[in-house]
Structure formats: structure tokens, C-alpha cells
Design brief:
- The N and C termini lie far apart (59 Å).
- The chain is built from six helices and 18 strands.
- The protein folds into two domains: 136 residues, Probable inorganic polyphosphate/atp-NAD kinase, domain 1 (Rossmann fold), CATH 3.40.50.10330; 133 residues, Probable inorganic polyphosphate/atp-NAD kinase, domain 2 (Tumour Suppressor Smad4, Sandwich).
- By secondary structure, the protein is of the alpha+beta class.
Length: 287
């Protein structure tokens, strides 16, 4: 049976596309087939290597060449099939990616030999309900967002455990996975959560009250958000993609996804080391 590896590439990075050519050549020398995401296949001049949605289940693992956003893209493709992802950091601020390009080839042999450690990361599933019917949904590794497009004040009535919990007067609300706690949730004032913790993080965005604080809840909690807006566009997005316009009275339901993202980890940098080094955690910034 032919062995194959998937590659997902940052679409706008010339460096990533050039490095992808090296990876493809390296794998070809070892008689390992390559499957590419559709845009990369065209840009690299290999349209016949395009992987259809159902094709990702046939690859052994997926290599991402880019930043964390490229991993988010790969997660939407590979995670439903249970295929693990190896992130190669070619972006400006990679937090999820495991390897730098210079280190990839020295580790690929052992990964192809099955000498890997897999870390499962919780994903979120979110649906927009309108008049009792689901009208839009998405699954992502980082977060689900409901937000005013023009910073208009919203009233966001939130239910937890089937009961009314709080109404946030805010520009929006974010429900993040532990992986997503280091992204938009962090910049909105949320806590850092170790990626293997089984929890969801609720973060109000620019709340117009001093009493609204981020909240960490168990991963099996179902979070319902009813949107009340007096005008202006309200957007819904999962991992910042496929934006959908939410109407007054819509409900957004967020829960743990049915499947995780499976990441290949090499113990190069633990979560705590990344927090310390990339966020300068605990260090004095004034010298």
C-alpha cells in the first residue's frame, strides 16, 4: 500500500511555498506520495496532488508550513479524520507549531517510523439557531466568536447548564478552547489555560461593566448565547473564518466538538516554556 503524507502551506508566504518544494522532493526520494491542499497544489504547480476533503483520511499525517493559522486550517481538514498534524513554524509568532524548518528533516525519519507522541487538543463546535432551526455551524481548534462588526453595544444573554447565567453588555463574546486561550481570548483579557486541560473559556469582549470577568467552565458544558442588538452588523465566526451575519434574536450554541485535533509533539518546548519565553511571563519589562 502506498504511503502518503499531507502538506498544508501558508498561501501567501513565498518562503513556505519554497520550503514545501524541498519537503515534497525529500518525500519523493523515499517513495512517499504527497497530498496538498487545493491552493498550494496550484501555486506549487502540482494540481494533480490536490487532496479532496475525503482524501485526508488516507494520509499518515499532515505537515503544516506556516504559522498557527495554517495549523487551524489543517485542523479543519484533518481532524474529522483523526489524522495527526505536525506544525512547522514559519510565521511571526507561532505558539502551536512544534518545529522550525531547520529541524524538520532530522525528525521526519523517526516520525515515519512511527516514533511519535500524540497530544489531543479539544475543539469547539458552534451553531447559529434562528427560529428554532440551525442555519450555520463551524468547528475550530481555537474559538467561536460573536461580535459587533462596528463596536456597537450588544446585549448577550448567556445560558449555562440550561439556566440563565448572565447578560453581558459588551461588544461581543468569545468561547475558546484551551489552545485558543493563547490567541484572541488572551488579548481580550482571558486566562492562559494549559492545552490539555478539559475546559472551555468564556471571555466577554470590551464589556461595559466592571462585573464581567472571564469564566472557565467544564468541557462538557453547553453554552448558549442569545444576541440582542439595536442595529449594526453582528458577526459569527469560528477560528476567524467563514464569517456569518447574526440577526437580532439568534441563539449561538457552543459545545465541545465530537473529535479533537491530534498534534504530533516532540517535547522541544513545553507549554510553560513557550509561555515564559514568548510572552515574557513574569519578567519585568522596564529593566
Amino acid at each position: 500500500m502506498e504511503r502518503s503524507v499531507g502538506i498544508v502551506v501558508h498561501r501567501r508566504s513565498a518562503e513556505a511555498l519554497e520550503f514545501a518544494r524541498r519537503v515534497i522532493a525529500w518525500l519523493a526520494e523515499r517513495h512517499i506520495a504527497v497530498r496538498l491542499d487545493s491552493e498550494a497544489a496550484v501555486k506549487l504547480g502540482h494540481p494533480t496532488l490536490t487532496c479532496p476533503p475525503e482524501g485526508w483520511k488516507t494520509v499518515e499525517f499532515v505537515i503544516t508550513l506556516g504559522g498557527d493559522g495554517t495549523i487551524l486550517t489543517a485542523a479543519r481538514m484533518a481532524s474529522p479524520c483523526g489524522v495527526p498534524i505536525l506544525g512547522v513554524h514559519m510565521g511571526r509568532f507561532g505558539f502551536i507549531a512544534e518545529l522550525h524548518p531547520d529541524d524538520l528533516f532530522s525528525h521526519l525519519e523517526e516520525i515515519l517510523d512511527g516514533k511519535v507522541q500524540i497530544e489531543e487538543r479539544l475543539m469547539v463546535r458552534a451553531e447559529v439557531w434562528r427560529s428554532g432551526e440551525p442555519v450555520h455551524s463551524g468547528v475550530g481548534l481555537n474559538d467561536a466568536l460573536v461580535k459587533s462588526a462596528m463596536a456597537h453595544l450588544l446585549q448577550l444573554k448567556t445560558n449555562l447548564g440550561g439556566e440563565e447565567f448572565a447578560t453581558y453588555p459588551a461588544d461581543g463574546i468569545l468561547v475558546a478552547s484551551p489552545t485558543g486561550s493563547t490567541a484572541y481570548a488572551l488579548s481580550s483579557g482571558g486566562p492562559l489555560v494549559a492545552p490539555t486541560v478539559q475546559a472551555l473559556v468564556i471571555v466577554p469582549i470590551s464589556p461595559h461593566t466592571l462585573s464581567a470577568r472571564p469564566l472557565v467552565v467544564p468541557s462538557d458544558e453547553v453554552i448558549e448565547i442569545e444576541v440582542e442588538s439595536d442595529g449594526g452588523e453582528v458577526i459569527f465566526a469560528v477560528d476567524g473564518t467563514e464569517r456569518f451575519s447574526v440577526q437580532n434574536g439568534d441563539r449561538v450554541v457552543v459545545r465541545r466538538a465530537d473529535y479533537p485535533t491530534r498534534l504530533i509533539v516532540l517535547n522541544h518546548a513545553t507549554f510553560y516554556r513557550k509561555v515564559r519565553e514568548r510572552y515574557l511571563y513574569g519578567e519585568r519589562l522596564n529593566g
